[in-house]
Amino acid sequence: MPFNKKKEAPKAAPAPAPKKVEKAVDGEEKEKKGGAKAPPELLRGFRDILPEEQGKWNFVRDSVRNLAEAYSFDRIDLPILERADLFQRTVGKQTDIIEKEMYAFVDPSDRMVALRPEATASCARAYINHGMLDRPQPVKLWYEGAMFRHDRPQAGRYRQFYQAGFEVFGTHEPIMDAQLIVLGYQIFKDLGLNVKVQVNSIGTPESRQAYLAELTSYFRPHRNKLSEDDKRRLQKSPLRLLDSKEEGMKELLAEAPQILDWLDDASKEHFTKVLEFLEEIQVPYVLNPHLVRGLEYYTHTVFEFVLDNDEPERAQNALGGGGRYNGLVELIGGRPTPACGFAIGMDRVAKALGEMGINPPQRPDPQVFFAQLGDAARRVGLKLYEDFRMAQIPVAEAFGKNALKAQLEAANKLAVQYTIILGQKEVLDGTIIIRDMESGAQEIVDINKIVAVVKKKLSSEKEARVVVHQSPVARE
Ligand code: HAM
């Protein structure tokens, strides 16, 4: 181990204060002046997730929740707004997130606050605030929600995006790192997405110092070949050079010293065990010596999930990532607590599902349509709708339409099996018509029995039906 080469790591310069939002105008956020009729504009990088997209979002949310429960994680909801310094101290002042992407502003109480760019720091804060150290360890928490980063919007990169995250506090054991990777892998598998896991270890901050010095001396003679951004990284956070996406860096990176060679024995042992567990459970992983992650709190294992067979450029858009962060709880004032976790980017996952043509219906398809004629029928219909709902039979309606023809067209579009039709005569008689949409056959049924009749028909399509009434319903 080349520990004798130990040199001072470059000192971190104080980070500039986070930009105020009003100064961060990017040219496209102009307000439309005066034009009362101009349509309201969305902020750049923000978007609506429309009803037609909710099917795949629900699919993601349900898989996340099911697996969180299966792996014994407890749900936590955290505030969207926190003190800005929580993130500055944990995510790290030299990171892109804090340097240029945080939505930080002074609130009316004169406090610097920020829309959370991530939630690991908030989880650690909650762990301390609520004395979770005194609960049986490890404490396993999961969350889901919006995060905010004033990043450059592009495919799969938004300024408001959604993460589902899992955090485990209170265990050093490498099996936990491995189980988190397995959990992430299972989420993607459940969703039908083929991912590969990239893993690396960045050791402890102490063991990293020697490596950072080595890395800096490797890059320094090549300084003039580096982009302005990379020059800045060389000076302020050399580890981030490994993550550089600049074309010219490829060759330099191929020859760069690798962090795994510089890990201390304990870090090496931890990482070897994590990999052994992954092999044991047959989660396919790729060792990526350049994986360092864009947040400063990591120690030991770091990992990312990327779509398998993805083009290299898009593969940079990880579907999720995380790692161990043993120093974070102590950093914000708690007792030393080992911890690890990961988060998946739900927007990117939903997008990947869409590209594969996966968009399940957002709610069960209705099997019955309720058509009504006249106000009296509407009044009875409102109650009837509740009866069907209580019986857990999804019913569609078109209360906004009057003509029977239009309502039957709506029923046809929804491809329901049965339409129940209530006219003024039926209201007076206490009956209702049930129409089989495929055969066109109609029956008149006692309105008090309609829910039971429909239920029976739906559960046994083959059951013989007594057609009591078969005249066309042309009573508009
Ligand atoms: P992160 O890598 O910054 O880690 O974000 C996790 C995931 O969120 C990314 O892999 C990506 O899928 C998604 N994501 C990040 N930024 C954007 C964006 N601008 N637009 C769309 N999706 C995005 C963290 O945030 C850590 N807190 C993860 C963690 C939990 N580490 C330990 N515990």
Walk me through this protein's architecture.
The chain is α+β, with helices and mostly antiparallel strands. The chain folds into two domains: 3-355, Bira Bifunctional Protein, Domain 2 (BirA Bifunctional Protein, domain 2), CATH 3.30.930.10; 368-459, Rossmann fold (3-Layer(aba) Sandwich). It is built from 16 helices and 16 strands. It has helices at residues 54-70, 84-91, 96-101, 120-129, 174-190, 205-219, 228-236, 249-255, 265-281, 312-315, 328-331, 346-355, 375-390, 404-413, 424-429, 450-459; strands at residues 74-75, 81-83, 104-106, 112-115, 139-148, 160-169, 195-201, 285-287, 299-307, 320-324, 339-345, 368-372, 395-397, 418-422, 431-436, 442-446. An eight-stranded mixed beta sheet has the order 1-5-6-11-10-9-7-8, sandwiched between helices. A five-stranded mixed beta sheet has the order 13-12-14-15-16, sandwiched between helices. A three-stranded antiparallel beta sheet has the order 2-4-3. Helix 1 (54-70) runs antiparallel to helix 5. The N and C termini lie far apart (89 Å). It binds histidyl-adenosine monophosphate. The site of histidyl-adenosine monophosphate (HAM) has 26 residues, from strand 6, strand 10, strand 11 and helix 12.
